[in-house]
Amino acid sequence: MTKSFRCRDAGLVCRAQVTGETEEEVLGQAIAHAREVHGVDLTDSRTLARHAQSLIRDDGRPAPAGAGT
Ligand SMILES: [Zn+2]
After folding, report:
1. How far is ligand 1, taken at its centre, from the CA of residue 29, in Å?
2. Distance (Å) from CA 39 to ligand 1 centroid
3. Total structural domains in the chain?
4. Residue 63 falls within a domain, yes or no?
């Protein structure tokens, strides 16, 4: 199973999505992406980093039907 992070989920107008095998890997890529593309260093703020981490989701696990949020 892979994990992914979508910039869009962070409220950014951005189609970028990073994926990885682990949360750490995805978070690392998300941090690099944010720094390079958005000029934001997530590591500047523990809150931002934690928020980004909370947005990482598991891929390959279809949302259960009828369990919508
Ligand atoms: Zn982005």
Report:
1. 11
2. 10
3. 1
4. no
Rounded to an integer, what distance in angstroms lies between the CA atom of residue 17 and that of residue 37? 12
Q: Which chain residues have CB less than 5 Å from ligand 1, an ion?
A: 7, 14, 16, 37
48 Cβ neighbours under 8 A, 6+ residues apart: 40, 42
Domain that residue 54 falls in: 3-58
What is the per-residue pLDDT across 51-64, written as a single tens digit (0 to 9) for each?
Answer: 999 999 998 766 56
| Amino acid, single-letter form, for residue 64 | P
Q: How much is the pTM?
A: 0.79
Residue in the structure block whose two tokens are 């949302």 = 63
Distance (Å) from CA 56 to ligand 1 centroid: 14
Q: Say if 17 falls within a structural domain.
A: yes
